[in-house]
UniProtKB/TrEMBL annotation:
It comes from Teichococcus coralli. The keyword Repeat does not apply. Keywords: Signal. InterPro entries: BUG, Bug_dom1, TAT_signal. This is Tripartite tricarboxylate transporter substrate binding protein. CDD domains: PBP2_Bug_TTT. Residues 1-26 form the signal peptide.
Amino acid sequence: MPSNRRAFGGLTLGALAILAAGPRGAAAQPQASEVAYPGSRPVTVVVAWAPGGSTDFVARVIAQQLSKELNGNVVVDNRPGASGTIGHASVARARPDGYTLLLGVNSTYAMSRHLFPNRGYDDDKAFIGIGRIAVSPIFLCVNPQLGVRDIAGLVAKAKAAPGKLSYASSGAGSSAHLATELFLRQAGIEIQNVTYRGGAPAVQALMTGEVDAAFVDAVTALPLMADKKIIALGVSTSERNPLAPAVPTIAESGFPGFEATSDFALLAPAGLPEQIVHKLSTALHATMMNPEVLERLRQNSILPTVGSPEEFPTYLTAESTKWGELIRSRHITLE
């Protein structure tokens, strides 16, 4: 925080101001920890998912560069469970001092709120958004033995045999699950949901033909597409993926406006001092301008979409409204 060091009679102007204002003026001054933040204390970035997934990968890439930008030590702590709500709840209870942050994903901060009413915190009141970070595209994929090569073929096959086809998901409220439900609603078709305990077994079921289709995160789908173990019919982003430019967007394949991605954002407990919010936001922007960071994300088909603290509430409201309406209209529950 900027300070005026010009002396007056042995005292700085800042010290004179505190004396003149009395106790209230002294209390209003920032704490030393705010000025020196983060100092020697480590900053913990909580990931509400197990190690090895896309959220964990993004967190570790960001934490490494944030350590340099903040001239401190940023570490990742995995606290998985209950679709991410356990990790989110732990951060919601943390002191708003900048030493506990959250690498959140929209499947928890925008979707789970509509499925876990008793999760122990209010997303709108418990957190402040430092900013969005990136998005991960999701590919609509089928098993090669299904015999379809485009979205029109999948829709036609599903309409010819209502309820006979199946899709894999990693549980109610996951990004892949809700992306599928959004597609089914827009396409006017019904395909049976088969739930698996995680993304890996869901993709394995798709490859073996246990299910016919699935929405698969790009980082997992791309190598399987290259090996022809699965066929991608469309990508969920508004633009084609630069690592798979031949795959059309779902929007351009007859479903205008379709978009469903895994969105990553950096959050902090509500009440974080403005000076620390600003410092974290500045460091996050610098991190996302770093060429090495951008290349590591790009190699895993994770696309930067850096946002600001001021923009986050509007984004969160729109994202929550979109998925909440879908969950209600499709009667999606945890059962």
